[in-house]
Amino acid sequence: MTSNLSPKTWTIGSLVKWATDDFRTRGIENPRLDAELLVAFALRIDRMRVILDAERPLEGAELAMLRDLVKRRRAHEPIAYLRGEREFYGLKFRVDKRVLVPRPDTETLVDVALARTSGISLSMRQLDLCTGSGCVAISMAHKRPTAKVFAVDLSPDALDVARENAYRLGTYNVAFYEGDLFAPVAGRTFDVITANPPYIPTAEIETLQPDVRDFEPRLALDGGADGLDLVRRIVDEAPSYLVPGGVLALEIGAGEAPDTAALLEARGYRDVQTARDFGRIERVVSGVFGGDQSATKPA
Q1: Which residue ranges are tagged as binding site for S-adenosyl-L-methionine?
Q2: What's the total number of domains in the chain?
Q3: Would you state the pLDDT for residue 8?
Q4: Of 73, 118, 167, 247, whose CB neighbour count within 10 A is largest?
Q5: pLDDT at position 292, please?
Q6: Domain limits for position 172
Q7: Residue 163 lies in a domain
Q8: Any idea where the Methyltransferase domain is (predicted)?
């Protein structure tokens, strides 16, 4: 927002229009939505009031705050980081540059884990690897308040965010551990293991939208040459941490489902299934290891 804004009286509507046009020229996706979200956040109102109060003049302090937010969004800083939160599975998670922004696609991972453990009693035990903001672990713990959820991440910064989210959302049945995949939970077994590991092929990182490439943590994005480095490790090691008939559910990148399913089948998982996200992309691959064929229900 430049100084040429000062000679006129800015209203909510004129500011939204100006920011929308500005964002569009900079190649930002959903420019109108982003403008409305930033205005709603700065003014502490909902998006409906942004529309209904379009003629309300903006005060100097409000313009100053919006000037900073627009400047940061111009540089493609994610809206979720600017607002400091993102909704996931009906819950509001605090997020910042220490963690990936939770995405609707990942809700499919929660759906699959819930469906494939629907027949388990009150004492379900879950392990969530690469937990990041804790969105998957906390959503599962919220839906299954009698379950015991273990959440692991290599990044201590990410775990700080996840712990804060668990505290704010009142999910006290989640325990957080720092370390490399299964190392912090050696000797334990689980009914279900979920993971949203880094799965972007290294060569594709630079082709991502600047919102992701320049702001979200590289550690949580880079999945190695073909995107499956951690997927292979998890598929190979998980059987030692699953009860008989336990479920492994993995989020993977677009186009990676066939290779991931083949990895599970080669390792001896059965009833391997693929679930699509809201965009109809094959997003989650899951399977059962050992146990009775009827131990789990299909997604």
Answers
A1: 153, 196
A2: 2
A3: 67
A4: 247
A5: 65
A6: 88-289
A7: yes
A8: 123-208
